[in-house]
Design goal:
The structure is a homodimer.
Chain A: H1 27-32, E1 39-41, E2 47-52, E3 55-61, H2 67-78, E4 86-90, E5 95-99, E6 132-134, E7 143-147, E8 150-154, E9 159-161, E10 167-170, E11 184-187, E12 200-207, H3 210-213, E13 232-239, E14 251-254, H4 259-269, E15 292-294
Antiparallel strand pairs in A: 1-14, 2-3, 2-13, 3-12, 4-5, 4-13, 5-11, 6-7, 7-8, 8-9, 10-11, 10-12, 14-15
């Protein structure tokens, strides 16, 4: 009995070459059959780098959903706002959050040229965006799908980014305009979709999420580090355009407006790998993989 | 600006006393208003303890769904099968898995009186179980709800445990009867519900999941530890009834067949805490909290 293989052995199977008369039947085969045009290089001005002692986390920003937050975050990054600050919270099955541990006190760091309050950018008009709904029975939204590589939900009139694993958001207090992007969180647990339209999402992790998701949990209420010494120091956070070339990562993500992506969703809905005995025939928004490649 | 509080400040709010003419409006208030009858003490014969160097993880077993797997696991635990074995896999946003790293080799540990193959217990007849569906638009099942504190799905004829965060399952190879409970996994990411009815779930974590979910990721394919030295040693795994009293934990979980639980689902569907600006009005199965209390 090959016990070590176990669940989802399939991802390891070599992709089979695609014949003209057959469609790729697994994710590996779909990716193998993809062409250059299926992938999008993310420009450095849309990449935000978080440098930790353990490595680097890279986020893609979503100015098309949260232009004010993205602009403010760019200013904060350029001015080194986060340098030497810390991860202050790691709540199991929920979020990891970082910013200024002294934000509420007289010792709070200055926002420099940035602002400390921005109106919530919780949703937007779908006009002008290429929203591609998928066939899925969603618990929270009338339709769900993807825009420019980001998971989204809609009620027909409004379009919003969805709190899937790896999404990047701006913390806020109770007032809708009390966030600024200075205090950030990443979803590291089962999608807390009840936060959709209640918090501003403005990006997602493309690389290195395990550096955040595997942090020791905070131990205090809401996962804040009860022991200040356990907080995880941030070396710095920078936009790609402010980095030396040797620090930049060249990341390409699968486009979500292609036939290849539609096929990917389909092969994940109807799993044909040998391991599956009773394929679901269904898929949920946050279970759709969003492949990223590191270019040479 | 109270930036440190941020998301879900609410869980910290003191529960308000319930007046005869008002219903508790938050989870904290619902739990505060609960009575002894709303809670169930889990007997030691249904508790499985995993002892790690970092602490103890405690699982509640579900013999009503997977009697053969639970029986086999009880035998394996009683005979010390797992003592000195290891966590072999930590795949980000998916599962943590443990068992015999040499299971496929001549050095494999003996199963003792236990068996190494059990027919999959992927679903069962709902007859005889008190399944309580909730109102939720589910991506994967016709109805979803709870049975004896466990999340479940159904198509009307079959009932199955659902792969929510914290669920405990038996790894298997491709054959439906190739699992035994000797190789175990716990869901530590967004619910992989496409595994429902494809793998045998037979319990869930009641205590200590963060010891598994925050483990360093494996780095190898499928999250297996590429470096064998990074595997996490298991001290031992035991049934509660085989432990000395000072090692046993007294755990009570909220019953899911009560008005209190129905109210809990409702206050999580319609979040009334001040932080929420646009409450979802909806809830998804795996976002329903399943509170556990450690008794004195």
């Amino acid at each position: 009995m090959n016990v070590v293989r176990l669940i989802v052995v399939v991802a390891l199977l070599a992709a089979v070459p695609v014949m003209a008369d057959e469609m790729p039947a697994t994710m590996a085969a779909v990716l193998e059959a993809s062409t250059e045009a299926d992938w999008e290089s993310v420009p450095q001005e849309r990449l935000l780098y978080l440098f930790l002692d353990s490595g680097t986390v890279v986020f893609e920003l979503a100015p098309q959903f949260a232009p004010k937050h993205v602009a403010n975050v760019r200013t904060l990054a350029a001015e080194g706002y986060w340098d030497g600050l810390a991860v202050v919270r790691a709540q199991d099955n929920y979020v990891v959050q970082w910013g200024d541990p002294h934000a509420d006190t007289a010792a709070a760091r200055s926002y420099g040229s940035a602002t400390d309050r921005i109106d919530g950018e919780f949703f937007r008009d779908p006009e002008g965006l290429d929203y591609r709904p998928i066939d899925s029975n969603d618990a929270y939204a009338e339709t769900v799908g993807f825009v420019d590589g980001f998971p989204a939900g809609s009620d027909g009139e409004r379009l919003w980014l969805a709190h899937c694993y790896g999404m990047l958001g701006a913390g806020r207090a109770n007032a809708a305009d009390s966030g600024s992007g200075a205090e950030l969180y990443v979803v590291t647990g089962h999608a807390p979709r009840h936060l959709d339209r209640n918090a501003t999402l403005f990006g997602r992790v493309l690389h290195g999420i395990e550096l955040l998701s595997s942090l020791p949990r905070g131990g205090g209420p809401l996962g804040f580090y009860a022991d200040e010494k356990k907080r995880v120091p941030l070396r710095r956070m920078r936009l790609g355009t402010d980095l030396d070339e040797d620090e930049q990562m060249q990341l390409r993500r699968l486009r979500t407006d292609t036939q290849t992506f539609a096929r990917l969703v389909d092969v994940r809905r109807h799993r044909q790998e040998e391991w599956f005995i009773d394929p679901a025939g269904h898929i949920e928004l946050c279970n759709v993989p969003l492949p990223v490649r590191t270019a040479r």
